């Protein structure tokens, strides 16, 4: 059974600028324990849960515990003196959200979603289509899914993968250039009435040949760019569809260990198109401190695994843009760093 069959389609979400008090009211009003944070492009950049609102540290919990309890008291307002004692600083969703976010597509199987919730210790996961949130799957949704009789039959089907991209591009190029000259090209020899070949050696024809070559070169370059863009878009979809399992993670760490044995001080965990980032790699390139919040798909999952398994051991995680086709960030890499 796939996510599209049992996900909650009416997603309650908030923009990054939403004050935490307003988020608390939204949670209570809709009877949910967390909401995704959606930017102006419709992309999930974080999640805010009850735990995020209350804070992870004791000081945070003490600071917000009372107004949270007041909201639970069916809309009773706080005493003005008490409100003043909480201070004037108002946090927003961006300040308290958990990021990056583990995401799935509509074709994710129920068993795979269950594994993700367990491995990343989360209670819900947004469902995306072309990067935009179209649903959400919680543990309650999964329980309903597993209660359906046709789970095994739905899970046995294989999911088709995109293919034929390069074939389509090559066919288009062959069609364009292979049938371009049904008549003689400018400057080509022509046959006289006596049957002899007579070349047309004029400056105008030579200039036409040169212009024609430049035109074809531009068309080839545009085709290559379109092909690269389509390949990148397909790769992004693949990176969002594929999730890092324990066996994958062990294999990655094994290769990192081999790199250290060769005397290397870092290892690239993943190379990915910057299109996978919500800002197309601008935060990584700057670099900005919030670059992890822009990660999606497999890159986000690797970041979360580093944070859980490797950061406590002293490892650093770095992100760098690797190339700049046309002057814009092209591909980026996530690097595990243990050297000075």
Account of the 3D structure:
The chain is an alpha+beta fold and 340 residues long. It has 2 domains: 3-155, CBS-domain (Roll), CATH 3.10.580; 246-337, no CATH class. Helices cover 46% and strands 15% of the residues. α7 runs antiparallel to α8. The longest helix is centred in the middle third of the chain and has 39 residues, at 203-241.
What labels would you give this structure?
three-stranded mixed β-sheet, globular, three-stranded antiparallel β-sheet, alpha+beta, CBS-domain, 10 strands
Structure, briefly:
The chain has helices at residues 3-6, 20-30, 50-54, 58-72, 80-85, 93-96, 110-119, 139-146, 151-155, 165-178, 203-241, 246-261, 282-285, 297-310, and strands at residues 34-38, 44-49, 104-105, 124-129, 132-138, 190-191, 197-198, 266-273, 316-321, 331-337.
Q: What is the CATH architecture annotation of the largest domain?
A: Roll
The amount of helix comes to 40-55%
User: Termini distance?
Assistant: 48 Å
Number of domains: 2
Question: What's the oligomerization state?
Answer: single chain
Tell me, what's the shape? globular
CATH homologous superfamily placement of the largest domain: CBS-domain
DSSP strand (E) fraction?
15-25%
What is the topology?
Blueprint: H1 3-6, H2 20-30, E1 34-38, E2 44-49, H3 50-54, H4 58-72, H5 80-85, H6 93-96, E3 104-105, H7 110-119, E4 124-129, E5 132-138, H8 139-146, H9 151-155, H10 165-178, E6 190-191, E7 197-198, H11 203-241, H12 246-261, E8 266-273, H13 282-285, H14 297-310, E9 316-321, E10 331-337
Helix pairs in contact: 2-4, 7-8, 10-11
């Amino acid at each position: 059974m796939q996510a599209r069959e049992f996900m909650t389609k009416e997603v309650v979400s908030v923009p990054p600028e939403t004050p935490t008090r307003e988020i608390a009211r939204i949670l209570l009003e809709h009877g949910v324990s967390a909401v995704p944070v959606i930017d102006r492009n419709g992309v999930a950049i974080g999640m805010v849960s009850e735990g995020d609102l209350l804070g992870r540290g004791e000081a945070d919990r003490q600071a917000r515990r009372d107004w949270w309890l007041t909201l639970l008291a069916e809309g009773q307002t706080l005493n003005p003196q008490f409100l003043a004692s909480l201070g004037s600083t108002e946090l927003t969703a961006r300040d308290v959200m958990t990021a990056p976010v583990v995401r799935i597509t509509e074709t994710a199987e129920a068993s795979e979603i269950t594994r993700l919730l367990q491995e990343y210790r989360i209670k819900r996961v947004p469902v995306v289509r072309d990067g935009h949130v179209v649903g959400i799957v919680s543990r309650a949704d999964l329980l309903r899914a597993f209660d359906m009789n046709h789970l095994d039959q739905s899970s046995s089907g294989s999911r088709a993968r995109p293919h034929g991209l390069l074939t389509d591009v090559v066919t288009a190029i062959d069609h364009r250039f292979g049938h371009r000259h049904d008549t003689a090209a400018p400057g080509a020899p022509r046959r006289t009435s006596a049957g002899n070949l007579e070349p047309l050696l004029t400056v105008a024809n030579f200039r036409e040949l040169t212009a024609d070559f430049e035109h074809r070169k531009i068309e080839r370059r545009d085709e290559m760019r379109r092909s690269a863009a389509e390949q990148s878009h397909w790769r992004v979809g693949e990176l969002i569809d594929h999730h890092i399992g324990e066996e994958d993670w062990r294999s990655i760490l094994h290769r990192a260990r081999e790199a250290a044995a060769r005397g290397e001080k870092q290892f690239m965990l993943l190379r990915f198109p910057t299109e996978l980032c919500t800002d197309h790699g601008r935060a990584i390139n700057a670099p900005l401190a919030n670059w992890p919040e822009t990660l999606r798909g497999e890159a986000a999952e690797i970041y979360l695994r580093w944070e859980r398994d490797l950061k406590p051991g002293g490892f650093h995680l770095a992100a760098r843009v690797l190339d700049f086709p046309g002057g814009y960030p092209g591909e980026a890499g996530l690097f595990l760093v243990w050297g000075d």
